[in-house]
Write a structure and sequence with these properties.
Elements (H helix, E strand, L loop, with lengths): L1 H35 L3 H14 L3 H13 L3 H11 L4 H14 L3 H12 L7 H6 L10 H6 L7 H14 L3 H14 L4 H13 L3 H14 L4 H13 L3 H14 L4 H13 L3 H14 L4 H14 L2 H14 L4 H13 L3 H14 L4 H13 L3 H13 L4 H9 L3
Length: 402
């Protein structure tokens, strides 16, 4: 009898623990949405409630950032001071910014010096351009601080390459990075940056090689894994992309962008059920997000759930009748259900609102080919190609060559 009672007590405790965990998870996901929507005060309040129940460096850090961006610098300072020994680089720069915004120049400079002593510090240009330091920029002590060489030659060279990259001077960025990597062959930062340049230039093969080196040199770095996934998708290596997004969600299970990106990848692999599942998870905490609803409708169309998709997309169009993305989605639905006239109408109307939607031109071309209107189809395909729709090339070569 006692054994049964013990089992019952243990079961109740486990269920209670699971329920509490679920409640905390729900609050964290909700807080993340508030952060994403720039509702920083609401996010800070939610993170505070979570911290009262479950102490966590990650949650405390997000709470501190929420307080900072909501303008509550006093509370942000308290949190960042607690985190100082756990993440010196992040905490020191934000403490410096908080004190600068409170016009406490001496303390701001003290923490800025501490930040500059970190190996993982922000670049000089980033710090100097940060508006949080506007109160300090004409101060003699500020000028005196920058007389010291805080950055190594390697850090300066990487910062210069990054400057070129951010300002679309990609050839100069590549030249700098090629020279840098010829000497510093173990620099994961340089490989990642060069991969980013190649990715921007749509040289996905070279980007893939470089990001692979970066990932191997520094395991589980989120931005490296994310870029590798994005490159893999462009190379149609969807399994690699899917694996990376799944790893990223193990690192940060509260990151909605990872769920959305994984859903896109599932869709490319034609696993629409899994794609819808990931989008539904996001909609659970952000139920009125139109972009998520539109994405879900597209996955439903491909999975054959056309009636549910039509209800969703008609609701979106009723709210935003001039949004071309929703019209394109409904056009795809009508195409799927062989309602050709309605599909033509929606794609054409979408182009009236935005004449640069390559997908709409491609779909109009497909409809024109079905109706044997080759002249119109070739016009639409040519326009789609100009707008960067790569899949239009094959159709153009097949149907429009003299």
């Amino acid at each position: 009898m006692k054994t049964k009672q013990n089992i019952l007590i243990i079961s109740i405790l486990l269920i209670s623990k699971f329920a509490i965990s679920q409640t905390i998870d729900d609050k964290i996901f909700t807080a993340e949405i508030e952060l994403k929507n720039n509702n920083f005060a609401k996010a800070a309040m939610l993170f505070s409630e979570i911290n009262d129940k479950q102490k966590s460096n990650e949650v405390l850090q997000k709470q501190a950032l929420a307080f900072y961006y909501s303008g509550n610098y006093i509370k942000a300072i308290g949190d960042f001071e607690t985190l100082l020994n756990r993440n010196s680089s992040l905490s020191s720069i934000y403490l410096s910014k908080c004190y600068a915004l409170l016009n406490e120049k001496e303390k701001s400079l003290e923490f800025l010096k501490l930040h500059l002593q970190n190996s993982n510090k922000e670049s000089e240009a980033t710090i100097k351009m940060d508006t949080a330091f506007n109160n300090l920029k004409n101060d003699k002590e500020w000028e005196k601080l920058w007389l010291k060489d805080w950055y190594s030659t390697k850090e300066i060279e990487l910062a210069e390459a990054n400057y070129y990259f951010k300002n679309n001077r990609n050839i100069e960025a590549l030249e700098n990075l090629d020279a840098f990597l010829s000497i510093n062959t173990d620099s994961h930062e340089a490989y990642y940056l060069r991969a980013s340049v190649f990715f921007k230039l749509e040289d996905y093969k070279n980007a893939s090689k470089d990001v692979k080196n970066a990932v191997e040199l520094k395991k589980n770095e989120e931005k490296y894994l994310f870029l590798q996934a994005e490159i893999a998708k462009e190379l149609k290596k969807y399994k690699i992309a899917l694996d990376n997004y799944t790893i990223l969600l193990k690192i940060d299970k509260y990151n909605f962008d990872y769920y959305i990106k994984r859903a896109e990848t599932y869709s490319l692999m034609e696993n629409y059920t899994a794609a819808i599942e990931d989008i539904n998870h996001c909609l659970k905490y952000n139920s009125e997000n139109s972009l998520l609803k539109n994405a879900k409708a597209r996955y439903q169309i491909n999975s054959g759930e056309t009636w549910d998709a039509l209800i969703t997309i008609n609701q979106l169009i009723a709210k935003e009748p001039t949004n071309p993305d929703y019209l394109v989605t409904r056009g795809l639905l009508y195409t799927k259900t062989s309602n050709t006239n309605s599909a033509f109408k929606d794609f054409t109307q979408a182009l009236d609102y935005n004449p640069n939607i390559g997908e709409a031109y491609f779909q109009l071309a497909q409809l024109s080919l079905k109706e044997k209107n080759i002249e119109n189809a070739c016009f639409y395909l040519k326009t789609a190609i100009k707008l960067g729709v790569s899949k239009a090339n094959e159709a153009f070569e097949k149907n429009c060559q003299e």
